[in-house]
Amino acid sequence: MKNIRLLAAAAVVAPALALAACDSAQENAVEDQAESIDEAAEAQADSVRDAADGTAMEDSAENTADAIESEGEATKDAMEDQADEIDGGSPQ
Question: Is residue 68 assigned to a domain?
Answer without folding.
Answer: yes
